[in-house]
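ok so i was messing around last nite and threw this chain in just to see what happens. nothing serious, just curious
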Amino acid sequence: MVGAARSGFTVRQIPVAMRERTTGRPSASPFRAMVYLSRAGLVLLLAMIRRMPDELKAFTPGTPAYTAFQQRTAELVDRRLTKA
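result:
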């Protein structure tokens, strides 16, 4: 997600409906949750401070490579829709 946002793509949150657990018990403990959040935070921090590879910089919205990719994808989708 960090790479997509840095490349100029739009990143959005989409809400989901969650239901309450009906059977069983959760496998996550408060300690495991703390470890998971710590690891996720570290990965996010490293992703934010990491340099973006040149290959990705060339493929940001508005560049010729990105526009060509969008056109090829649209053509493939049109072909599949006309076959169906």
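not much to say yet. The helical segments are 2-6, 30-49, 54-57, 64-83.
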